[in-house]
Amino acid sequence: MRDVVMAAREKGEKDDVNIASVGRSRPCPDKAVHPLGRRTMTPADYRLILSAVIGIALSIVLIIRGRLHPFVGLLCGAFTVGLLAGLPMEDTAKAVEKGAGAILGGTGLVVALGLGLGAMLQLSDGAGGMARAALRLSGVKGAPWASLFTAIVIGLPLFFETGLVLLLPIVASAAAALPAGQNGDTAKLRLMLPALAGLSVVHALVPPHPGPLLAVNALGANLGLTLLYGLIIGIPTAIIAGPLLARFTAPGVALSPPLLDPVKVDVATPSVGRSLAAVLLPVVLIAAGQAVALLPPAVGVHFHWLSWVSDPVVALLVAVLAALPLLFGRRITDRTIQNAIWTEAMTPAGGIILAIGAGGALKQVLVTAGLSDMLVRVADGGAISPLILAWGVSVCIRLATGSATVATITTAGVMQGLVASSGVEPEWMVLAIGAGSLFFSHVNDPGFWLVKSYLGTDMAGTFKTWSIMETVVAIVGLLLVLFASSIF
């Protein structure tokens, strides 16, 4: 495995354009010059930490108590950090604009196309057909495992919220159809919680989801290796946090009727094969482009065109165009269906794009203020592993902002210098950050309320099931990253 990885790296370094890092070159550890030789904390460092804590805390208060949108709350926090850290207002404003612009420049397209593909699978009932087929094949005993792996497959190209809307009502219906005595609240949760675990894991660890994809770009990681490592880490993590953990958290939790139902248009449900092709196409295109680096040079030169197809924007665009006939057949020219697809896709897009843009702004202010350099000095002191440090920073931002994507974006930005100076493989850094971004979802996370609505749990039940599950994913993910990074 190590030989394959090294071959991919060597090929990528020789190419004029490093296709694996989506247009960005990897930071070179040899060229990283430590700006400060000292490793002790200075008064300026403490001021910076205090500024970051106050700025993030203000964001929390504005979002939770003030009921402001995360976009506004995070921007207020970004300006607060800059001012308290001693940055001139003009520099702070430029950092905010730079951070938001850098994130939104390419991510907006990924968000829109991903939501479009999810809307097609939802409206055509393609994802529902795959889920029902998997649950029929699995039987009663295998139903939690079928729920888990169906969620992983369906969740590969979809946002967490879209996958949740698609899958949970189907799984709940399948649980209700179980034989008498085996369809109570505990049985339902033991089917639905594995689905949530699968969706969460791919959302945080597997490109082309926005969080991992942006971290890949920021840290100069290899996209194909990150996808491969994400699956290697994610599948056992989802197994532990899903079917296994549900045996302990599901009993004793009462369910009420779900508050939300999925939307569907009046079209024939596509076959499982067609739906599966639409789901896997962007992943296959991305993986194929990265596989070119593993081919002998004489062969690889004939497949160099795959490099641009593996770009996430191109891969998702091709998948969206292919999904139209696959999922809707001859009705792709029906104006009603086209309007429904993009209305359903764009409704959540604005909020998502604005929130991650504000997260990018906060990240850039923290970097401009010097937090990245300070973290480099702390890690260089040898007191803590760079991977653990990255995970811990991601956990703090996740707890503060409630957004896994914002936590990933912000942490990846401030960890760029640490990757360059420490020599740690950026793919493992991406996964450590992604794992930390899931830690303990609570009331400032929109996903918390969405899960509560679809599960039908009360507050205590949501904390017992969903919040604990997310925490287990974060901890197990970190442990597996630490273990796997020492092997590969």
UniProtKB/TrEMBL annotation:
Alphabetical UniProt keywords: Cell membrane, Membrane, Transmembrane, Transmembrane helix, Transport
Transmembrane segments: 46-64, 71-89, 101-121, 142-160, 189-206, 226-246, 276-299, 305-328, 349-367, 387-414, 426-443, 463-484
Localization in the cell: Cell membrane
Membrane topology summary: Multi-pass membrane protein
Major location (coarse): membrane
Record-linked InterPro entries: Glcn_transporter
Keyword Cell membrane: yes
One Pfam family this sequence matches: GntP_permease
NCBIfam families membership: gntP
Family: Belongs to the GntP permease family.
Name of the protein in question: Gluconate:H+ symporter, GntP family protein
Protein species of origin: Sphingomonas bisphenolicum
